[in-house]
Design a protein that fits this description.
4 helices; 16 strands
Length: about 250
């Protein structure tokens, strides 16, 4: 295994500072987790902890905009991973003590952080699992962005999606978060949202509405939701264990 191989992944729920309380309450309920101690100068970071397993979801307050989602990649050698990303066309946004914030060629933020031995994936919760970050990319940047992520993550399976506008990056067994690249219908700044795999979307909708979410729209294999912190995410008809659609990986 190379020094740049991904050893663990975190999905970040990014929400405005003023709505962090609602975001924390909702996402701990959805994932059956509890909050870590708050971190950061303004208490803007928190990890969602699961008993007897390793965390893979965190919540972060953002200074501007509606928020969204991003990925943290845990690696053994952060500088080596950063250099690999830069060679492939990423740029450095900020360097911190032991970790870095990067931007993909299309503008999607992601972080390189040290691996601390995480290895045990959280379980399925009431038929659902938060297991995917969807990168929403305009058509002018889409092909280059697929090429970037496929090259940055050579150990991951790079697969065509169920629809022409989707491309999936499936991690090796044991890693908790997949990546979906979604080609938008028009060019606009890159964004990202969270997806949950659901054994039964209708049942998941009822539960999430009970927790304060609302339905935004419905697609072929998914329902778009809005959480109580005004963030959009999707409930998708995928196997919570494998992450794939029925009869697909």
């Amino acid at each position: 295994m190379s020094a740049t191989s991904i050893r663990w992944t975190y999905a970040f729920v990014d929400r405005p500072h003023g709505r962090l309380g609602a975001a924390r309450d909702f996402w701990t309920a959805v994932t059956d987790t509890r909050l870590s101690e708050l971190r950061g100068d303004e208490g803007e970071f928190v990890t969602l902890l699961s008993d007897r397993t390793d965390a893979c979801v965190k919540v972060q307050g953002v200074d501007s905009g509606p928020g969204g989602a991003h990925l943290d990649f845990s690696v053994e050698d952060v500088p080596a991973f950063v250099n690999s990303a830069l060679r492939l066309g990423a740029e450095t946004v900020a360097e911190h003590d032991g970790w870095a914030v990067l931007r993909s060629p299309a503008g999607q933020l992601f972080c390189a952080v040290p691996w601390h031995g995480e290895s045990v994936r959280p379980p399925v919760v009431t038929g659902t699992r938060l297991d995917q970050v969807s990168l929403d990319i305009g058509p002018g940047s889409y092909d280059a962005e697929v090429a970037f992520w496929s090259a940055l993550l050579p150990d991951w399976a790079s697969l065509s999606g169920a629809l022409p506008e989707f491309h999936v990056l499936k991690p090796p067994p044991g890693l908790p978060i997949r990546i979906l690249l979604q080609r938008l219908g028009e060019d606009r700044p890159a964004a990202a949202h969270l997806d949950l795999a659901c054994a039964d979307i209708d049942e998941a909708v009822v539960l999430h509405e009970h927790l304060g979410a609302t339905v935004v729209s419905q697609g072929k294999h998914w329902t778009v939701m809005r959480d109580p912190a005004d963030g959009v995410y999707c409930l998708t008809g995928r196997d919570p264990e494998t992450g794939g659609l029925p009869n697909r990986p």
